[in-house]
Amino acid sequence: MSHLTSTSAGDSRQAEHFRRILAERRAEVDARLADDARRLAARRRAGSTCGVKSIRHRMRKLQRQRDEMDRMLSGLDSLAGAAVTS
Known about the structure:
It is built from two helices and no strands. By secondary structure, the chain is mostly helical. It has a single domain (about 1-85), classed as Helix Hairpins (Orthogonal Bundle). Helix 1 (about 1-45) runs antiparallel to helix 2.
């Protein structure tokens, strides 16, 4: 019985660790998206189309990464919730 408890506690700590790292990475992606949005807006205000396509492409890629991170965070939260109710 104590073996199961220590394994569960270890799993919970590991899940917390991964969640913290993932949340930090997501914040970094959010910051990069915000920077790109500012760049894109500045180009539009200036009437420049130079680099707009590459900025949009990078933003779509970052948005996909953020969506994937959100799915992983949700999965970790579900596991943590399941561990608490068990």
